[in-house]
Amino acid sequence: ADGPDEVHKILFAKQGLLKESAMELIAAGKYLPAAQLLHAQGDLVAAAEAYEGAGVFEQAERLFRHAGNDDGLLRLYTRKGDQRELARIHIRRKNLDAAVRALQAVEQDAETVALLAHCFRELGMVPQALLKFEELVKQNALKPETPALYYEYARLLEELGRKPEAVAAYNAILAVSLHFGDVGPRLKELPTP
Predict the structure, then answer these.
(1) Of 141 and 26, which is predicted with more confidence?
(2) Which of 47, 124, 181, 182 is most buried, taking the most CB atoms under 10 A from its CB?
């Protein structure tokens, strides 16, 4: 009878054979069966890379996300030309210059403008951040119902000395989210118009 150590050795050997089989499939250009084998084995990153090689980008993206593999996602989004998703990863990694470059290359819808405003503010580019926030106000896309973004705008107004506008923005946030961040204490510190 095989003891527990012997069973483990057999399992590890089989697992090694599966990995070796998957690598042989990849070498032969058979990415999809390799991806399925690797996925079944639980090697999410290798499976995602094989799905990417097979052109099954949605599955590759799901697995890269699940595995938290930003490098794989960066490669995938670069290949797909998805600038907004590239920008999100750059923002998460605090690579804001790259995020701005990616965002400036796409249609300037409300979501993109909001991301740009955030990046500009984080980079200390106050005039550009203010322009983007004001663009959102004109598009009617900056609303108290999006309190995190509206808060960022209110903070910028406060920093620029535009206290009455900041107070109005903070009050608008409280109207939809009574205990959002430090809005209450900030309002107490600001003079009311």
Answers:
(1) 26
(2) 47
User: CA separation (Å) from 119 to 21, 42, 74, 108?
Assistant: 45, 36, 18, 14
Burial 1-32 (b: 16+ CB within 10 A, else e): eeeeeeeeeeeeeeeeeeeeebeebbeeebbe
> Cα–Cα distance between 129 and 118 in angstroms, integer?
7
Q: What is the pTM for the complete model shown? A: 0.72
Q: Any residues with CB less than 8 A from the CB of 61 and at least 6 apart, and which?
A: 48, 73, 76
DSSP 8-state class, residue 191: P
The percentage of residues in the chain with a pLDDT greater than 90, rounded to a whole number, is 57
Q: Which two tokens stand for residue 131?
A: 């322009």
Half-sphere exposure of 82 (CA within 13 A, CB side): 15
SS3 110: helix
Tokens coding 86: 């590239």
**Mean pLDDT of all residues belonging to the chain:** 87
122-140: per-residue pLDDT in tens? 999 999 999 999 888 888 7
14: pLDDT strictly greater than 90: no
Distance CA 28, CA 22 (A): 10
